[in-house]
Design a protein that fits this description.
The chain is mostly helical. It has 72 helices and no strands. The longest helix is centred in the first third of the chain and has 27 residues. The radius of gyration is 57 Å and the shape is flat.
């Protein structure tokens, strides 16, 4: 080393000592410039940078030193100071660990201990280390640490002065590692517990997460598989300084940890060996703790629960006693102590020399040991031993239901125990299976025998001589009546285990019983006597003794009549042995009722009642009781007996909601039939259906059950199922007409009225006087008539209503017992018949009415005399419909005089009468009778409400009756109806109409919206909302609502009429400027009016409107017919009322009829109608009517009559009369430019038709004057232009059209909506032979309005005439793109086809042209042009 380097290093050291850090840095840097790898220079440089807090360069310097000299302690110390100053605790800990190992390598124990102490202190800080990091550094003090050989050289600590050195804690830990081990255990326990909890919480939130117990098992296994705790527990227990208490506590922890680890391992797969090894360790651990009697409850519990023994007696009672002594407060100890006391097992083991003297301790009768056991068991859900004790207790107490539940729970615990311990528990499983099998055999036998047999087979496959399982199989065979097989099994039990007195005694008894049932009565009696003799020597066993005596009595009973008295004695003896033995009471009841002479039914009934009270499974006693109660009419008692019988056989075990198909096959089907009949009478149809279904599972061919099931189905509204059940009943007994009757009734309820009528008629053919069938037939005809009426088949409906009356009259002739329902049927049929405007079969109606009238009028309590015109007769009336209504009123009134069974029926009668009176009030023309009928109807509705205020229909009827006269009552009635049934759409609609009538549109709209929500298909609600929209001036929405109402299934005539009226008005308004309104626009109105007029054939307004619609769609003859019918209705109405409004309507109808006759070329008829109308109109209105609307209407009608008559005369060749009338029309319409313009045009056309030059000039003059008077009279302008074209008078054409042509496009189009000017110009140029100019006019029109299909079609036609087919196709193609009107599309097809044919080309083009032409013909077969186009296209194709 050069002197320069030495001097600089010395200077750097001295500068650091003087805290001259910059100088030290510079000196070190000078050295490094000369010697870059000088470690001392780097060391001084790092120290200088550290003091200058240049941490980055400091770290580089120290790292360089360590790179050059790894074992240089001062460099490591410098780094430690750097990281400590930076608070980089992880690097600081890493450096300290390296320093500790450097000191250990140099065997410097003290410095090594100091560094380790620093490291421990660092990790104890909250922000500098975790639990596991602290545990890691603490392990450096344990013997297996690589530092321990050096640290063990430290001297023992000075306990008198523990703070004498800085490494005192290290010295203490080295010489006594127990505290370190305890701290490590605490750290690892806390860490593992935290990891387990957090991991479980995290995994539970995952999608498709496994069950919670599986998650806990998986997480526990993951954590415990790598746990350090078992090793630390072992070290603590082996440590010489460990106290006994600490060792025991650590041992407990080790046991719990190993138990958790063991239970989390899988018993199969790769973990099987590890589980077996760990299970052996746990068993060794708990065995040692039990052997040493260490009071650890878990160890003792695991020791006891892990025993695989078959009988409870095989558990080590001494271990159980010790458990009770060590843990007297535990729940299991309480259960075991109660178990020992209950079975008189001593709690303290006797000395051997006193064992013979010791007597078993009797249970304390004041202590409820069984209750203690059950109470303790509720807290021991995971104890196998507790489940075994309790299941055995329930079995001995014959509580088989709970025994089954506990045994099943115990088997689940066995499965879990086998999984937890990794070994089979065969004996415990067999014990539970035996208990379960015995309980299943005796629990509602033979319900669970199939399941019990599977368990018994499993037990016997493992243990063929298991006595209990053999007994169980024997009992099952007994119930299956396999007596010989059962006897063989019981004999085997006797041979296998003759020393088990209880089971052998029962086996002998059952063996004898099997012999008795197999016919060997004497042998059986002998064996039973032997059993009885043996039982008599045993105290207790009273029930067993009674059962044997009863069986002996049954043997003698079956021996014959001469042994019945002997059997009676044995039955009595049975009851003396045990007074609550139910079968003996049943046998005594049979003796008293069937054998005793004379029979004693009273004593027999008492015996049956006693037997049934003691045991509901005594089915014979129950049936005898039910039959007795049924004979006495005590149906409630019949139901009680039936239900208790069902409960006794386990029929309700699955719960009341269980489906019939899932229930056990019943033993006593009669009980279910009885329940079904009772529920049917109570109208509890679902319960009745279920009862009959269950009964039919026992006897599927029981005709009566199928019949009752079908009846229950029909009343419950399940008609398809009812038909199937009733058809099956009829198949079982074809002669039973009741099934056919029920089928017909179901068909009637389903709406298959014709099938129902056929069914009833087939019954009546063999039983013509069957009253119920007659009534149902009449009701079916009535329902059929209502259906036919709703679907528009009026004639059929009339026939059905008349048939209903005739059949019901036959019913009244046959018997008077059905008068109330019969007269309702008759009155309803006549009421519906009264709604027919036209009767198709007058004679039949008269005959029916003549049969009814005497019945309803010839009685002393005849009412409504101030309303009905008595006497009623068919001879002097022409209005049979109104007479039918009066007869219906009389019938409803007569029905009231017959009385009613209950208030509901009487209320219905008042309601029917009120409804008929309301209809009468609307139809009668007598105002006095109208008022009386209306008031009477309101009174009837109020009486109906008083009798049955819960019927919303009554409230609605009252509201309707008071709609106009009493608004307050009306609103109250509607609201009360909604309180009864808030989901009735009709009521909400009525309320909405009420609000609308009183101009509250907002409330009305809410009511209509509610009705639509409840029933979207209720048409009247849509009509109401349409009226609201009209009131709000939303005409477009109103039309849409009315249109929707007409499309609904249930038609509302008012909706049809309103929609048609609005549509007609809309199309007329839209066509005001367009004369050629499309006929398709009127088709919806045509169809709905057709439907309306069929329903309301006497509505003059509708008939008149329908005639006008027919005119617009081209059905002139049909229009004439309907307007003629309207005129007839109006004439009849005017004759009765002489109302001037009706007179005006009559006049307008004749004017329209005349116009239609003109269109149909009936000029004479047109003149006749015009003359009638003119005769009804005043020639000059009265002075006071001047300037009024009336005057305007009169002038319009008179002008129409005059120019219409003129046109008719013109068509008849009467020109002079025509001219006079036209001139008169012009004078009349002087103040009406539109009408005057029409008249002028007609006058000019008439003059032109005369043909003379003078007449033609006069025509031109008239038109010119009209145009001067009304410059916007486009019809006159066009007519004048047409005359100019015909006479080649260009000046006249220009004069006529110049003003219109010169107008701006928008004004011109406004005045000429049909583009007649364009058409005339084109025709004018064509007439002059100037095709080019005509084409130019058409092109300008298309350019101005490219969207109009008619002008495009005209241009295409002109282009095609010039031979430019391709251009024509292009024009028509563009037109198709904008095509929206079906009529326009139809008009373009022929032209398009011709253009394609002219264009020619390939076969595909010709085929397309043919298709278009054919389509045009199909759409308009009446259009000659379409046929000509098709012929032309085909001819071109043939070429």
């Amino acid at each position: 080393m050069s002197a320069f380097v030495k001097s600089k290093l010395k200077a750097a050291r001295e500068a650091l000592g003087k805290n001259e850090n910059e100088k030290a840095r510079d000196a070190a840097l000078s050295v490094l410039e000369y010697e870059p790898d000088n470690p001392n220079a780097h060391l001084f440089l790092g120290a200088a940078y550290l003091r200058l807090e240049d941490f980055e360069k400091c770290e580089q310097a120290f790292r360089k030193v360590i790179e050059l000299k790894p074992d240089l302690v001062s460099a490591w110390q410098g780094l430690s100071q750097l990281y400590e100053k930076k608070k980089d605790w992880e690097e600081y800990a890493r450096i300290l660990d390296s320093l500790a190992h450097l000191h250990a390598a140099s065997n410097d124990a003290t410095k090594c201990a100091e560094v380790v102490q620093k490291l421990i202190d660092l990790r104890r800080q909250e922000d500098a280390g975790s639990r596991m990091q602290l545990a890691q550094v603490l392990t450096l003090l344990l013997p297996d640490s690589d530092l321990y050989p050096v640290l063990s050289a430290l001297p023992p600590p000075d306990l008198t002065n523990p703070t004498a050195t800085a490494i005192g804690p290290i010295q203490m830990a080295i010489h006594n590692s127990l505290p370190i081990l305890e701290e490590l255990v605490t750290l690892y326990e806390e860490e593992e517990q935290g990891v387990i909890q957090s991991e479980i919480a995290k995994r539970r939130t995952r999608l498709n997460a496994p069950p919670a117990d599986q998650i806990q098992r998986d997480v526990t296994l993951e954590v415990l598989s790598t746990s350090q705790l078992p090793r630390l527990y072992d070290e603590i227990m082996k440590h010489p300084n460990t106290s006994d208490d600490l060792r025991r506590a650590t041992e407990r922890k080790l046991l719990r940890m190993k138990q958790r680890h063991l239970f989390s391992l899988s018993p199969s797969g790769s973990q099987k060996e590890a589980k077996a090894k760990l299970a052996a360790e746990v068993e060794e651990l708990i065995g040692g703790m039990v052997f040493l009697k260490i009071p650890d409850e878990l160890a003792w519990t695991l020791f006891i629960e892990s025993k695989d023994v078959e009988h409870l007696e095989d558990y080590d009672y001494e271990v159980l006693r010790q458990f009770i002594q060590l843990f007297p407060a535990s729940t299991l100890a309480k259960l075991l102590k109660a178990y020992f006391d209950y079975y008189a097992i001593p709690l303290a083991e006797e000395d051997e020399d006193e064992e013979e003297k010791a007597q078993p301790t009797e249970p304390d009768p004041d202590v409820d040991y069984a209750g203690i056991i059950i109470e303790s068991f509720s807290e021991l859900s995971d104890s196998l031993l507790a489940h075994r004790i309790v299941s055995q207790l329930y079995e001995l107490d014959t509580d088989y239901e709970n025994a089954i539940k506990v045994a099943e729970s115990g088997l689940e615990l066995v499965r879990r125990a086998e999984q937890n311990w990794g070994k089979p528990f065969k004996r415990v499983r067999k014990a539970f299976n035996v208990t379960l099998a015995m309980s299943l055999v005796h629990f509602f036998p033979p319900k669970h025998h199939a399941r019990a047999l599977r368990i018994i087979d499993d037990v016997l496959a493992e243990d063929p001589d298991n006595v209990t399982a053999l007994l169980c199989r024997g009992f099952v065979l007994q119930h299956a009546k396999r007596w010989s097989d059962a006897a063989e099994l019981f004999g085997k039990v006797i041979r296998i285990n003759p020393d088990d007195y209880d089971k052998v005694s029962r086996a002998k008894e059952e063996h004898a019983w099997c012999k008795a049932q197999d016919g060997e009565l004497q042998v059986a009696a002998g064996e039973l006597r032997g059993v009885i003799d043996a039982l008599d020597d045993v105290d207790g066993r009273d029930e067993d003794k009674a059962r044997c005596w009863w069986k002996l009595g049954r043997c003698y009973w079956d021996m014959g009549v001469d042994q019945r008295e002997e059997a009676y004695k044995y039955f009595i003896t049975s009851l003396k042995r045990f007074s609550n033995f139910a079968p003996a009471f049943t046998s005594l009841g049979i003796y008293y009722s069937e054998h005793l002479s004379p029979p004693d039914p009273k004593r027999a009934s008492k015996c049956f009642q006693k037997a049934f009270e003691l045991d509901p499974r005594e089915a014979e006693a129950a049936r005898k009781l039910a039959e007795g109660f049924a004979e006495e009419g005590e149906w409630d008692l019949v139901e009680v007996v039936a239900r208790r019988t069902i409960e006794g056989e386990g029929g309700l075990e699955e719960g009341a909601e269980a489906r019939a198909s899932r229930r056990y096959l019943p033993i006593n089907a009669w009980a279910w039939k009885a329940v079904g009949a009772v529920e049917l009478t109570r109208r509890n149809y679902p319960a009745a259906i279920e009862a009959f279904q269950i009964a039919l599972r026992t006897d599927v061919d029981d005709h009566m059950s199928w019949l009752r099931l079908g009846e229950a189905y029909s009343r419950a509204g399940r008609y398809a199922a009812a038909i199937k059940a009733l058809e099956h009943a009829r198949e079982l007994d074809p002669k039973d007409w009741v099934a056919s009757y029920f089928i017909g009734d179901v068909q009637r309820q389903m709406g298959a009225y014709e099938e129902a009528i056929s069914a009833f008629q087939s019954i009546l053919s063999s039983r013509p006087q069957e009253l119920g069938v007659l009534h149902s037939l009449g009701q079916s005809y009535l329902d059929l008539g209502r259906f036919e009426l709703s679907t528009g088949f009026s004639a059929r409906a009339e026939t059905s209503f008349l048939s209903a009356v005739s059949v019901t009259l036959d019913l009244l002739d046959a018997s008077s017992g059905f008068r109330r329902v019969a007269w309702k049927t008759i009155a309803d049929a006549l009421f519906h018949l009264s709604g027919f405007a036209d009767i198709s079969d007058d004679e039949l109606v008269r005959d029916v009415l003549e049969r009814v009238i005497p019945l309803v009028t010839d009685h002393p309590e005849k009412g409504l005399t101030d309303i009905i015109s008595y006497p009623l007769t068919t001879e002097e009336t022409s209005d049979l419909s109104f007479l039918a209504l009066e007869v219906a009123l009389a019938a409803y009134d007569y029905r009231l005089t017959l009385g009613a069974i209950d208030d509901a029926a009487k209320g219905s009668a008042f309601y029917d009468l009120g409804s008929a009176l309301s209809t009468f009030a609307r139809r009668t023309l007598d105002t006095t009778k109208r008022d009386r009928a209306q008031q009477n109807a309101i009174a009837q509705f109020k009486e109906a409400i008083r009798l049955d205020p819960g019927n919303d229909a009554f409230w609605v009827a009252l509201g309707n009756a008071t709609f106009l006269s009493q608004p307050g009552v009306c609103q109250h009635a509607y609201i009360r109806a909604l309180e009864v049934d808030s989901k009735n759409a009709a009521t909400w609609t009525n309320l909405g109409l009420f609000y609308l009538h009183h101009e509250d549109a907002e409330l009305a709209n809410e009511a209509f919206y509610k009705a639509q929500t409840l029933d979207p298909d209720y048409a009247l609600a849509w009509v109401g909302q349409g009226l609201v929209a009209t009131a709000n001036k939303h005409d477009r929405e109103a039309r849409a609502l009315f249109e929707h109402a007409t499309t609904l299934t249930a038609t509302v005539p008012e909706a049809d009429l309103e929609y048609a009226t609005r549509l007609f008005k809309k199309v007329n308004e839209s066509s005001g400027k367009s004369r050629a309104a499309s006929a398709e626009a009127f088709l919806p109105a045509f169809f709905v009016l057709d439907r309306y007029c069929k329903q309301r054939p006497r509505d003059a307004a509708a008939l008149h409107l329908f005639g006008l619609v027919c005119e617009r769609v081209g059905h002139i003859a049909l229009g004439i017919d309907f307007i003629g019918r309207a005129i007839a209705v109006l004439e009849a109405a005017y004759e009765e009322t002489e109302d001037p409004v009706i007179e005006r309507q009559f006049t307008i109808a004749h004017v329209n009829l005349a116009r239609l006759r003109l269109a149909s070329a009936d000029y004479e008829g047109a003149l006749e109608s015009y003359q009638v109308a003119t005769g009804l109109l005043p020639e000059q209105p009265a002075e006071e009517d001047a300037e009024t609307e009336m005057e305007a209407d009169v002038k319009v009608l008179l002008a129409q009559c005059q120019f219409g008559s003129g046109l008719a005369h013109f068509k008849l060749g009467q020109l002079a009369e025509a001219l006079g009338l036209f001139e008169a029309a012009m004078a009349t319409a002087a103040d009406h430019p539109v009408i005057r313009g029409h008249v002028v045009v007609l006058l000019a056309q008439t003059l032109w038709a005369i043909g003379t030059d003078e007449a033609k000039e006069s025509a031109k003059t008239q038109l010119l004057q009209s145009i001067e008077y009304d410059p916007e009279n486009l019809m006159a302008i066009n007519t004048l232009a047409g005359m100019g074209i015909l006479t080649d008078d260009d000046g006249l054409v220009d004069a006529a059209l110049s003003e219109v042509v010169s107008l701006p496009i928008d004004q011109r189009h406004e005045r000429d909506p049909e583009r007649d000017v364009t058409y005339l110009l084109v025709q004018h140029h064509l007439g002059q032979g100037d095709a080019k100019q005509a084409l130019s006019v058409a092109q300008k029109a298309v350019y101005a309005e490219p969207e109009r299909t008619d002008v495009r079609r005209e241009l295409a036609s002109l282009t095609l005439r010039n031979g430019e087919s391709a251009a024509a196709l292009a024009i028509l193609g563009g037109s198709a793109q904008t095509q929206s009107d079906f009529a326009e599309l139809r008009a373009s097809l022929a032209l398009h086809a011709i253009a394609l044919a002219v264009e020619g080309g390939d076969n595909e083009t010709a085929s397309e042209a043919t298709k278009l032409a054919q389509k045009g013909v199909m759409l308009s077969p009446w259009d000659r042009q379409g046929w000509e186009a098709l012929a032309y296209v085909r001819s071109r194709g043939a070429q």
